[in-house]
Amino acid sequence: MEGLLDCVLRDILTRVGGVDLCVTEFVRVSGSQLPNRCFQRIAPELLTGSLTPSGVPVRVQLLGSDPHFMSVNAFSLGNLNPAGIDLNFGCPAKTVNRHQGGAILLREPERIHALVQTVRKAIPHPIPLSAKMRLGYEDKSLAIACALAMQDGGAKELVVHARTKAEGYRPPAHWEWVGRIQAELSIPVIANGEIWTVDDYRRCVEISGVEDVMLGRGMLANPALARMIKLGEGAALPWAGLQPLLHDFWELVGQRTRAQTQCGRMKQWLNYLRQAYPEAEDAFQSLRRVTSPDELEERLFASPIR
User: Which CATH number fits domain 20-214: 3.20.20.70, 3.40.50.12780, 1.10.8.60, 3.40.50.10490?
Assistant: First the structure.
């Protein structure tokens, strides 16, 4: 989730509990060898044992299409001892696809196999290699072929976003296809897409037959979703309990982000939170035209909205 679910939100969300593993935003690989600071900018957790402050492992995701530069950069990243490396074959962004990255590679299983295999050979054996895919670009006809290409290339775990690139983020997610893919593979398959509630999780697991899920937008809307999946509805986080996390998020954003973008970051998260919290709807509407960090802080943390 480029530009949103960064190291700051990984820190905040993993404090709530229930998360076993995080994957970063993608590091884009093109025609150069990136310096270590590029990996550490996306994943500053590399400087702390590849763990969030709460101790949750963080894998670093790479996106690219050139086998040589993917392997060169994977080798450099491997030397930083990440908790794992993940390969992105799911990004639907037009700019990324136009440069032969992300979901467009789902048209070419052979090319996917070569990329995964090259990266696997470039990194130390103990470092886990995983991949994330959609069900296809225009359609699902190559979904199983692409999944097998990732497995046969050396990926030891596969996340399946259960929609094609053409389907974008429109409901429904086709969880039954995750099950079809798992039936053909010998590595673990993880379901992703349209898991907003504990009931969604239960239906996803029942339909797909897989054991694990990856949470994205649903976790932004309900920061306790992973905890609730593990412990039950009683593990929900009330609005009052979310306030210290919102405050810490705001402080971290202030430390890492330019003043002109700080309000946008808070409003981005509130926009998701209002799907689960009526109070967040009130806060979002109150702040939507605010551009001053000082004014936002005063309204959000010193007004009745809190």
Answer: 3.20.20.70
91 flagged as catalytic: yes
What integer pLDDT is reported at residue 303 of this predicted model? 53
Instruction: Delimit the CATH 3.20.20.70 region(s) of the chain.
Output: 20-214
pLDDT averaged over 10-residue windows placed end to end, the chain, 306 residues: 84 98 96 96 98 98 96 98 97 86 96 98 97 98 98 98 97 98 98 98 98 96 98 96 96 94 96 96 95 95 58
CATH of domain 239-302: 1.20.225
Q: Which of 162, 223, 234, 228 lies closest to 201 in space, CA to CA? A: 228
Q: What's the pTM value of the predicted model, to 2 decimals?
A: 0.94
How far apart (Å, rounded) are the C-alpha atoms in residues 221 and 272? 5
Q: What is the dihedral of CA 11, 15, 18, 19, to 10 degrees?
A: 10
Instruction: From residue 61, give the alpha-carbon distance in Å to each of 42, 66, 131, 261.
Output: 9, 15, 9, 24
Q: Please report the pLDDT score of residue 135 as a whole number.
A: 98
Q: Pick the catalytic residue from 91, 146, 204, 263.
A: 91
Q: How far is CA 45 from the centre of its chain?
A: 15
Q: Residue 88 is which amino acid?
A: N
